Structures are given as structure tokens and as C-alpha cells.
Amino acid sequence: MALLNTSTTFSAAPPYACDATTFAALCSLHKVAGSLTHGRKQLVVLSVTSLEHVRKPLLPRAGFLSKPTALVSERVICTDVQPGLKLELKYAKPPAKDFVEFMETMPKQEVVAFFRDIAAELEGFRQLQDFHMKVRDGDGDFRVEVFFNEERNGPDVAPYEDCIGCCPDTNLFVGQEPGMASKDCILEQFSLRPYAVCRLDAKGRTGFSIMPVRHVERMSELDDDELYGMWSVATRMLRQVGIPFISLILNHGRYRTLYHLNLKLWVGNKAHDKFLSTCNEETRELWNGLQKFAANRPKKQQLCFFYRRDGTCRHGDFCSYSHGEYRN
Question: Which residues belong to any copy of the C3H1-type domain (predicted)?
């Protein structure tokens, strides 16, 4: 929540009528400009909803029984699937669409507003800094699942020289010199410069990494073009290659393994094989090299979250975490 007063100049009027006195609002802030307008700082507001129109309780949705559900903005429904542990957010406006269709048919400003509203709910209203955000398709629609309040040991600071998103010559496999440089994994045919870059998964897994060109660590730090560009790269690639996806993952805070904001696009084995079949020989050789480096990468001491009872992991030999005990 943000408390705004009448000394602030708004760049956009609230979508609902409200008086001119001080009011509480759910905001997505793009920037605070330093310039003055008639002696007042100008605050650029992307979306503002009067408090009386925010967080309308709704009847529980099918499949969630008595789970608390609320309309948290004009376009986002939020369900506390596991209070204190897991949320599910869905696009509220009909008709239902899967995620690729949503990205392809909705105006840019609506896509941006949807993700701004999610960021406002998570980081503003709920004050979450550390969370795991997952986009998945459902029965004709899509959902954004958010997991939080789990123990994670992600990075605290971001030394520039170690950032694989900022330093193209960074070795992805320290200890296996000469290794492979970060820039070698870039797929320019799917990248959207100057906003986002698409890479092969550096650990040789069946997925892709999509990073903003500019160094940011949170989705809320992206400007509109970067935000739209990052998600567009993922869906454009899926459409161009003609493959489905399993999930899109965007970790924040201590859930991260990288300093740079990193959208992970996970696909199945058959889908990845189809992608490789469309690549040139150089890219296929690069992929084979990645797998060799990844298989010889030292395991981290942290236990793998995806290690199964039967002694397997969905990432197979290319998982970089310890498989010391059963986790799920």
C-alpha cells in the first residue's frame, strides 16, 4: 500500500472515482521524477485503484473449496491456496486464455498492468521480498503460482564481475577452464534487444534463460518495455518453434541462484528435441558441449529440492545440487 497526498501530481487518473483528499491506493510505480511541477515533485503512477475498490472478497472458486479468494485489482484474482506459503493469481477478465494466447492477443499496456498488479500485491500489500513465481497453463487458462516463506539461501549482493547477464565473457564453468563464456549461449534469433536476451540453459537442461539486458534483480524494477519484452521473448520463441512449455519461473530474493533477474522457460524432452532439430550445426555442437561441462560440474552442498523417492531428479545428471535425501 502507498499513502498518497494532494501535493502529488498524477500522470494518470485513477480508474475509479475518488475524492481529492488523502487516500490509500494500490500502486505500480514506474519512477519518481526529480523535476518539479509548480514546486511539486511529479510522481509517475502506472495504475492506481481507490482502496474501496481493492481486495473485494469473492466466493471460493471451484477446486479451492473454502480457500480465501479476493479481487485484488480490476484484472487480478488472488487465492490463498496455502495461507502463509502459497498464492495463486489469475487474470480476472473474460474470456479465458492460455498464457501464449494472452500475450499474443492482449494489448501491451494490459499485459504490463497485469504484472504490475501482481508485483503490487506481492511486494506492496503482502511485503514479500523472497518468493518463487511460476506461470503454468491450466484448463484453457493460465495461473501464476507464488511460493514463499521457505528456507532458501540465494545471493544477497550482486558483484558486477560475477554477473553472467552483464559480463558476456564470464566463464559459466569455473574450474573447467577455458570453460564456456556466457555470450556463447545467447540465441540471438529469439532475443529482443535492447530489452531481453534468450540463452540456452547453462546447466545443459531442457530449458532456456531469458534475462533483461539491463541489470535488475526484481520484476518491479523493469520499465514497461523491458517487462513486456522479457515475457514476449518466451512466448514468441514457443510460437516460432511450435512447442508447448511446462512452466515459466521467475525467482526473487533468496529464491534466486543468480544475481541478474532470470526468467526460466522449462520445456519437455520432446519439445527440446524439436527445438534442436531447428538449430544449425553450431548450436547443436554448443548444446553438446554444455551438457559435457554441466555433467562434470561440482555438486553444491545444498540439497536438491526436486530429488525424488526413487533416487532420481527431473534434471538428471545435469542437476548441480546434492541428492543426499528424499525431498518430495
Answer: 298-326
Which ranges in the chain are annotated with CATH 3.30.428.10? Answer: 55-297
How far apart (Å, rounded) are the C-alpha atoms in residues 218 and 253? 8
Cis peptide bond upstream of 159, omega within 30: no
Per the structure block, which three cell numbers stand in for 24?
Answer: 490509500
What residues have CB less than 8 Å from 82, skipping those under 6 apart?
none
CB-count exposure of residue 177 (10 Å: 0-12, 13-18, 19+)? exposed
Helix (H) / strand (E) containing 82: strand 76-82
Cα–Cα–Cα angle for 324, 307, 277, rounded to 5 degrees: 130
What fold characterizes domain 55-297?
Answer: HIT family, subunit A (3.30.428)
| Distance in angstroms (rounded) separating the CA atoms of residues 56 and 238 | 35
What pLDDT is attached to residue 99?
98
